[in-house]
Design a protein that fits this description.
This protein is of the alpha/beta class. It contains ten helices and 15 strands. The relative contact order is 0.12. The structure holds NADP nicotinamide-adenine-dinucleotide phosphate.
């Protein structure tokens, strides 16, 4: 089992190379191992395993990890491969249907691969165990569930979309040490809470998620661009709410850089999540303000909370007349990590296990 796990960890490393490029598809990595050297050649010492090829899903709509891995193996072993004596490791069940590419389970059967070790089953109803059945029916030795938790966690956005028909929701905000996200104001600029490094990490988070959302007042007061300018990767789809049609059309959120969705008539959270799932959006990063974040926290329908707590106080003492926007109320059950002298709390919402 330890052997299976070490190759599965390698699959997860490879899978992650597709981050930023494959959404809403899952990140998948594959490793082909020649593991019956006795049958191979006298030059190879007994019990030596050889990695013959590696591959990962690189681009949405592009070839899956399995064909990429086999292509890599064949290119580097032109003398031919004894597939029957090989094990293919892959963190997600090989597909069984014709989508943008032909079924990977069929390719595995055609090549005559002896054994396939899988991290987790594919929740996509078009696959969901069919890939495993197809291979077993053809005589392939299939093992399922190696590092299953880690495999599901890597693709938690994908699993959430298919198992709960809603995007994976991450709530994120920055607050002062005394618990405010801004000063109360009707104009002017927001207070600076984040450091430049943490701002850059927020842009990394934006690239990891398919959509980003803010409330009406944040758009009106801050006029944010909501782009991924300080990290490589795509700009997320921008989402806001505008029940009273008050957001000016020349706001940055309507720039041509990325698509924007505005909910006007119905801003019910369950309705929004259902609508985003229908659009195949597998994740949304909610960046504020306090009213929208608190509303979502109160519904209980979210998956992660990321809070940055700076070391500055908005109010120097209890007599301060400065009025602040209180941060959402959230039980800090986790230990923070420190970045740039700020505390970063990251918590998974325990109700949802991916
Ligand atoms: N430090 C940070 O991390 C951070 C991040 C973002 C924003 N901010 C700051 O937060 C402040 C704005 O926060 P805010 O709490 O005043 O406003 P907000 O959360 O940005 O927007 C709230 C408004 O959105 C509208 N809305 C429509 N549907 C809603 C729904 N389902 N749930 C909640 N709201 C809905 C409501 O306006 P209607 O009733 O008019 O429809 C509501 O008053 C600004 O000062 C901004 O700079 C700080």
């Amino acid at each position: 089992m330890a052997k299976f796990e070490s190759y599965m960890y390698r699959c997860l490393q490879l899978a992650q190379l597709g981050e930023y490029y494959v959404a809403p598809n899952p990140m998948v990595g594959a490793v082909l191992v020649y593991d019956r050297p006795k049958l191979f050649s006298s030059e190879v010492p007994e019990k030596t395993e050889l990695i013959l090829g590696e591959g990962w899903h690189q681009q949405y709509g592009g070839p899956h990890a399995e064909p990429n891995c086999l292509r890599n193996a064949e290119a580097t072993h032109p003398q031919g491969i004894d597939y029957k004596s090989c094990t293919l490791y892959v963190n997600l069940e090989p597909c069984s249907h014709y989508g943008k590419t032909p079924p990977c389970a069929e390719l595995i059967i055609r090549k005559g691969i002896g054994r396939v070790v899988i991290g987790s089953l594919d929740p996509n109803p078009q696959v969901a165990g069919r890939g495993v059945k197809m291979m077993r029916d053809a005589g392939v030795d299939v093992i399922v569930g190696v590092l299953e938790e880690e495999c599901r966690s890597l693709n938690r956005r994908f699993f959430c979309l298919h198992e709960h028909h809603r995007p994976y929701v991450i709530l994120k905000w920055a607050q002062t040490a005394d618990g405010f996200i801004d000063v109360v104001r009707t104009e002017g600029k927001p207070i600076v809470i984040s450091t430049p490094l943490i701002k850059q990490l927020v842009h990394q988070q934006r690239a990891e998620n398919m959509a980003i959302m803010v409330g009406t007042r944040t758009v009106l007061l801050d006029n944010p661009k909501l782009l991924t300018t300080h990290w490589s990767g795509h700009h997320p789809v921008r989402i806001t709410l505008d029940r009273h049609n008050v957001i000016p059309l020349d706001s940055h959120i309507f720039s041509d850089d990325a698509p924007t969705i505005v909910y006007r008539e119905n801003t019910n959270w369950s309705f929004i999540l259902n609508d985003l799932a229908t659009r195949n959006i597998h994740s949304v990063l909610v960046e504020g303000g306090a009213t929208l974040l608190q509303h979502i926290l109160d519904t209980g329908i979210y998956d992660e909370v990321h809070v940055e707590v700076s070391n500055q106080l908005l109010k120097s003492d209890s007599t301060s007349v400065i009025e602040g926007v209180p941060a959402p109320v959230y039980p800090k059950t986790t230990k923070p990590i420190m970045i740039d002298g700020h505390q970063i709390y990251v918590a998974r919402h325990c109700v949802n296990k991916f």
